[in-house]
Amino acid sequence: MGNETLMQYFEWYLPADGGHWRRCAAAAPALAAQGITAVWLPPAYKGAGGAQDVGYAVYDTYDLGEFDQKGSVATKYGTRQEYLEAIAALHAAGIQVYPDIVLNHRIGADGTEQVTAEESDAKNRSREISGAETITAYTRFDFPGRGGKYSDFRWNWRHFDGVDWDAAKRRSAIFQFDGKEWDAGVDTENGNYDYLMGADLDMGNPEVVAELDRWGSWYLETTGADGFRLDAVKHIRSDFFTGWLSRLRQTSGKPLFAVGEYWKDDLPTLLSYLDACRDCMSLFDVPLHFNLYNASRSGGNYDMRTILDGTLLAARPDRAVTFVDNHDTQPGQALASWVDGWFKSIAYALILLWGEGLPCVFYGDWYGIPHDNINPVGGDLAVLLRVRAERAFGARRAYLDDPNVIGWTLEGDDAHPGSGLAVILSDGAGGQKQMTLGPRHAGATFAPVTGGGSAVVLDETGSATFSVEGGDVRVYIRV
Which residues of 454-474 are buried (b: 16+ CB within 10 A; e: fewer)? Predict the structure, then answer.
């Protein structure tokens, strides 16, 4: 069995043609053949933008494209039936399914309420800058189009901590409801980063927690999902997911892999969050993404010896989900930090062949992003995926000892005949490096499958001199 590899199966600018679930189902066998073992699917429930909504403006989590709400029955990606068929097709291909779960906020309310609130300082949410005032808040979620099917729960202002819009005065500000406190156990940016957008869920309200438990059980039973990608976890009290995931794992009888999006380029903060949530999830390795981004933008002047410094992959590889780019970092998005094209194969070689962490391949790198005339990464990525599935096993020897040219080897193991590999890469001038794969490969021939070049024969210790051209990556495997 090959290594686990995740694919984020969407990008921000997919066509709003309701066809994505069908395309996903059709692609399942090819993805499995390429070495993909799990997919992260976009939010499947109805957003405030209806058939145009990418899924993060959450309206009704029980509407998976089944009810005429927000101007459409289908979501941007298709209907409930097509969603379930896509999951079934992925499962039939041996691929696990991790839906994107957005529990921080609700948007697109069905009605307003008069609520007493105080305005919070946007840059220091723990400081109130007004006295109590009555605002008209979009906090009633009655879901008339669903008519109580699956759940009769109705949301009102008591289920939220605050909003950012007073409809009566048509004024935008951060309003904290009277008698409420921003949740503790969240990121400390802006003093307290509980509030992100929309009507912010009060995770300290027992009714909210009970409803999210009920919904989670319903969702797993309905979809057969194998785990979750959890959105915006830095805005949600850390103990919420500890309890929520534990209860769902118990009731479902599944291990339920989970990866959280804690968007911060700061390793100590990510490690503190893992401690606070008691390792109930993995996290995306945001610091590694920014190292890759900065290296790609440094004109060959990045010190490649430091490429893993400050990363989850180095500090907690067992909890690191590594990635090059995603839907938030692509051009035009709020967190845009797109890794330059010339560096993509180098970056993917690192996350796919390092031998630790769970790598996530981005849909936009695999298929391209027509909206921005961005082409797929191309043949190298397919080769790297195949090498990962078949060869990336065994003990690693790292040679992060030069500002430009770095490399590593994986020795291989007995369980995977022919496994083992050598990687050498450079962000600047080309060069060479003596590396060893160990005595199990003494006298073997290793040939490059990316970056051109000639085969090398290993000596009696399993060592050889490997080379790379400037700004490229060479991966050698046993022939």
Answer: eebebeeebbbebbbeebbbb
